[in-house]
Amino acid sequence: MTATTLSYPLVANNLPVPSALGSLDAYIGAVHQIPVLSVEDEQALAHRFRNEEDLDAARELVHSHLRFVVHVARGYNGYGLPLGDLIQEGNIGLMKAVKRFDPEVGVRLVSFAVHWIRAEMHEYILKNWRIVKVATTKAQRKLFFNLRKSKTRLGWLNAAEVSAVAKDLNVSEREVLEMESRLSGRDIGFDAPSDEDDDHAPPSPAAYLMTSEEDPSQAYERMDSEDHQLQLLREGLGRLDERSRDIIRRRWLDDENKITLQELADEYGVSAERIRQVEANALKKMKALFAA
């Protein structure tokens, strides 16, 4: 079985493709609706796929871990690359991991798959991310070429030369200095190995790629629990009347503009004690839902 073999069911099961225009939010919402597998179910599916080449079992293993790929992809947002593309690359890594997963080893699939997911994302970043972007706008490109032609000597421009170049090109002196800095900077390999003998050499940018100290399987279970709690919170708020919902939101969910009982009492034209009673009853109803 190849990664391509596994990619088709994502569309066949009506899950939106991450890179499709306007579908990323829908895709993320859809994958978070897929339940997390228990250890027993995961082991059973993995054995079915390994022993019987059951593609339905492989598909279910992939689908149940798509939310984890989204979680990992969000950790790489700082590179300025499309989240949907990162997710797609991570999905390829997930499918490769499912193909190679050995249920007899005794680890969760997510702990095994995280390395494959990150490897695909790292490769994508290495191919598409540039450390120094020189002349990214039309004005900067003009300055870039003219500055190289206008420099009369090697090395940094002095104040008079900066002023003259800025006047000739009708740009600010700050822009001239910034472009000169870019032109004078040396290239750094993204994943170049560090020179242990050079104490002054900067580490390669690849060294800054995200790592996590948390065990992937524990993170996966924690995320599922948090998603479940958030869903219960939404359901609980939905069951309250409008006034109770407003009081709970403004008293407990608004971190920036928390409001007092008296302020709500003045707004609703009742006593602060009445607002407290409404709040207590609303919280009681919501707690019952969480305890169910």
In short:
The chain is mostly helical and 292 residues long. The chain has 14 helices and no strands. Helix content is 64%, strand content 0%.
Please state the average pLDDT score: 75
Give me the oligomer status: single chain
Query: Could you say which overall geometry the principal axes of the C-alpha atoms support?
Result: flat
CATH architecture of the largest domain: Up-down Bundle
The third-level CATH topology of the largest domain is Four Helix Bundle (Hemerythrin (Met), subunit A)
CATH class of the largest domain: Mainly Alpha
> How many distinct helices?
14
Count the E strands: 0
Coarse structural class = mainly alpha
Could you describe the largest sheet, including whether it forms a barrel? Answer: none
User: SSE order, as H and E?
Assistant: HHHHHHHHHHHHHH
Give helix % range: 55-70%
Tell me the radius of gyration: 28 Å
Percent of residues in β-strands:
under 5%
Q: CA-to-CA gap between the ends?
A: 42 Å
Runs with pLDDT <50, length 5+? Answer: 1-16
Q: Supply the number of structural domains.
A: 3
